[in-house]
């Protein structure tokens, strides 16, 4: 099997032409998204090039502290993004979201690294950083969807929740329906992807490995591993986040905060 085709700056220039087409189409359709397309493209180029250089250094060092440092930064950024999507004003949400991402990702990646992949060194950047990126990125979205959905449901249904509290329900019982709905909603993208993978979509890891010349069956095996790891991490994150979010709406006397 032939090796991957190397892309140079000229090829990336042609790729940038597709963003130019998006901007032109936006202008012709009066969508007013030209600036956002150009800004997003610029940020993508800058961020990926910077990350590429940093990871090259980390791979060269092959040091556990450097690898864990990269993972920690990724987790902190993911927590900030998820927290802002749930409620930008509530600064106290950050520890909750960060802790949820940390525990769910650690459990999932620990299982994956220790029992399945089993590299020579557990901190091998070749495995730990890409796996963390894929698992953490999806867990971040799950946290955002679950937290935002539950927050909105509680805020819209104060009267119904207070009625349940008056009838003797505790805080968990009074919001349990909304919590289950929030968790289910956060998992819909994950389940949809698993349902049609290989039939409608070819995920990024599978496609990337095939383009890199990896045997398609081995690439499919890694993609299966990633999908299952993402499913577990997303469910754990949604459970942890919703558990913490609903508690923030009640005081010590089981009263719903206004």
Automatic annotation (TrEMBL):
Cellular component, GO annotation: plasma membrane
Protein's UniProt name: Iron export ABC transporter permease subunit FetB
Species classification: Bacteria, Bacillati, Cyanobacteriota, Cyanophyceae, Oscillatoriophycideae
Residues that span the membrane, as ranges: 12-28, 40-59, 65-82, 94-116, 128-147, 220-241
Family: Belongs to the UPF0014 family.
Keyword Transcription regulation carried by entry: no
Record InterPro entries: UPF0014_fam
Keyword Transmembrane listed: yes
Subcellular location: Membrane
Keywords associated with the record: Membrane, Transmembrane, Transmembrane helix
Membrane topology according to the record: Multi-pass membrane protein
Pfam families listed in its UniProt record: UPF0014
């Amino acid at each position: 099997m032939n090796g991957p085709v190397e892309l140079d700056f000229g090829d990336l220039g042609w790729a940038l032409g597709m963003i130019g087409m998006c901007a032109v189409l936006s202008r012709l359709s009066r969508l007013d998204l030209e600036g956002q397309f150009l800004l997003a493209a610029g940020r993508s180029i800058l961020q990926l090039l910077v990350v590429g250089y940093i990871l090259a250094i980390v791979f060269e060092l092959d040091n556990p502290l450097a690898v864990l440092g990269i993972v920690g930064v990724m987790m902190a950024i993911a927590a900030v993004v998820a927290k802002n999507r749930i409620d930008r004003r509530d600064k106290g949400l950050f520890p909750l979201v960060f802790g949820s991402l940390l525990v769910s990702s650690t459990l999932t990646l620990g299982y994956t690294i220790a029992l399945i992949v089993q590299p020579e060194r557990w901190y091998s950047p070749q495995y730990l950083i890409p796996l963390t990126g894929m698992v953490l990125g999806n867990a971040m979205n799950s946290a955002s969807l679950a937290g935002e959905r539950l927050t909105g449901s509680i805020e819209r249904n104060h009267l119904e929740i207070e009625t349940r509290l008056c009838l003797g329900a505790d805080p968990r019982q009074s919001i349990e329906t909304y919590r289950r709905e929030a968790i289910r909603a956060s998992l819909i993208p994950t389940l949809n992807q698993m349902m049609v993978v290989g039939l409608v979509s070819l995920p990024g890891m599978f496609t990337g490995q095939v383009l890199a010349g990896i045997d398609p069956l081995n690439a499919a095996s890694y993609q299966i591993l990633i999908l299952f790891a993402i499913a577990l991490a997303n469910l754990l994150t949604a459970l942890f986040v919703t558990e913490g979010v609903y508690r923030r709406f009640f005081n010590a006397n089981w009263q719903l905060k206004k």
